[in-house]
Amino acid sequence: MLIRTLTVTAALTAATTALPAAACAATTPTTTKILIVMEENHSPPALASMPYLHGLAHTYGRATHWSDIGHPSLPNYLAIFGGSAFGLLGSDCSPSSTCHAAAPSVFGQALAAGRPARAFEESMPSRCDTSNAGNYAVRHNPWAYFPAERTACANHEPVNAGTALAAAAANGLPALAEVTPNLTHDAHEPEGTLAQADTWLKNHLPAVFAGPDWKAGRLAVVVVFDEGDATDQVPFVLATPHTHQVTDTARLNHYALTALIDRVIGAPLLRKAKTAPDIRAAFGIHTR
After folding, report:
1. Number of domains, the chain
2. pTM of this prediction?
């Protein structure tokens, strides 16, 4: 097992050693659902300009050396939700015969395992839309790049993402939920700002934290930026009801999130997730 160091005090300064996952099992509720919110194009200092997200990071957990896997946006989305960049490093192409990913995605894995999956894409004009439109950028909608799963994508991507997310949070989220705010609300410059992104999170995440999945202790919420600007490192915040003031200082990248998704949904580790570090112990997460 990979050994990593954590700081787990109110000031986030005193070092301790992460408990092994087996030790957590006796006291930690099982995490069976995960929600990932994608933000855009900033390095870790951005947290200082996002008081709501900064508060979540300090209350629950963050990783201080989390890196993207390249540039621009698309390869990072595919890495997280497909376990590979699929040869598209350097490209933000729209879905086509020469710009796509091989199935399965983690969404397809979840559905194949009988676990619900949904992607909530703000301002998307039609289900699983494969073209840019207004503040909707298809390069920020990873499921649209898996043509073998296009029907499933269309069936599980609601158009009114904000309303649908609130309803799902109140009634029970799927095992895997991916949320992409639009270009105004995901900190993508010049369309939006960090302040607008933070306000969006503040307006939408409380419904998630008030929902039955969070209250039952079975939900992990991740907010991660796709790529850095000043450096390749990006903000990574992870919250569960049983994660308290954790800072993981290990060197990690997006494939560690792919691996966490697969472990939560009970699927085999996908592509490069197979060799990615296991972050469950660091954040006090127990899965089946």
Report:
1. 1
2. 0.91
